[in-house]
Amino acid sequence: MRVYDSLVDLMGNTPLVRLHKVTAGVSAQVVAKVEYFNPGGSVKDRIAARMIEAAEASGELRPGGVIVEPTSGNTGVGLAIVAQQKGYRCLFVVPDKVAQDKISVLRAYGAEVVVCPTAVSPDHPDSYYSVSDRLAREVPNAWKPNQYTNVNNPDSHYHSTGPEIWEQTDGRITHFVAGIGTGGTISGTGRYLKEVSGGQVKIIGADPEGSVYSGGSGRPYLVEGVGEDIWPATYDTKICDEVIAVTDKESFNMTRRLAREEGLLVGGSCGMAVVAALRVAATAAPDDMIVVLLPDGGRGYLSKIFNDDWMADYGFLTTSSEEGLVGDVL
Ligand code: PMP
Asked: Superkingdom, according to UniProt (predicted)?
């Protein structure tokens, strides 16, 4: 019989899929690591499992514990799945720019969700950082995984995402491209790939224009889950050979193309990462292999990125005459 004991056993081991249409004119291979194949639908299942197991082992998380975390949704889903399997309560704090669909998903898994304003500074008492700190102090038996400082976040990628990619490509990967949010994905995967290849694999960060990682001030952008206005401990500032800034407009139009042309219904940070990967591919050698990580699926963004009115309101819809982009108004 092929029966898994728990969904937790299905986290990780996601496939690599070659991109065909959006890579027209590119000679290097560009392959996507499709993280929506995780049971919670995103790359964040990996860190959820490892952070919880480590906290149980260290005694920080005990039976009857409450998991309190500021999360844009995906980490919450991973934590909620692992927590319910193990009998913990979840209390999540999210910024109000997060799509309503994502919040509904967290509640569907049985988590409690507190929504906080995006347009306040991180040290403001109403910011989602401050509110989650306060709840972690005040709620009895609370444990805060803190994905922004928890070493098990990058370590989960060092032990799973990195080795998977190396094995799946038979060591032929030359470039790894990923968005940077907490920095856990790029730091852990990047560290493994650099070590195993003797420094040969180039690590390229993708970042929303305006975020600090690509030299911005931290000004707002609409793509979710990536970019920062602070420098989290989970980001290894030496890991990237290059960080490429991508606009919201470029990210969202590429996200729509991935659904329409590659059959990949994915989130906005995936479009962002693919735009960066294609910029890398433009100057790469023909036998190079670029692996781009796609963090989540697109169902949580139907009312935004995949909604023409929302795209038009922000001036994001493009015409075919705009270089490299094909939008809806043809
Ligand atoms: N994309 C999405 C949709 C995410 O939720 C996250 C996690 N914040 C990322 C990208 C970035 O991953 P990381 O935190 O590992 O840098």
From this structure: Bacteria
**Ligand 1 geometric centre to CA of 234 (Å):** 12
Burial of 63 (0-12, 13-18, 19+ CB in 10 A): exposed
Please indicate whether residue 182, judged by its CB atom, sits closer than 6 Å to ligand 1.
yes
Does residue 155's CB lie within 6 angstroms of at least one atom of ligand 1?
no
Q: How confident is the model at residue 319 (pLDDT cuts 50, 70, 90)?
A: low
pTM over 0.80: yes
Instruction: Tell me the residue length of the chain.
Output: 330
Ligand 1, from 226, 229, 258: best to mutate by most atoms within 8 Å of Cβ?
226
Helices first, then strands: H and E counts in the chain = 10, 10
Q: What is the pLDDT of residues 257-316, one digit of tens each?
A: 999 999 999 999 999 999 999 999 999 999 999 999 999 999 989 999 999 999 999 999
Average pLDDT, the chain: 93
d(CA 298, CA 236): 28
Catalytic residues: 44
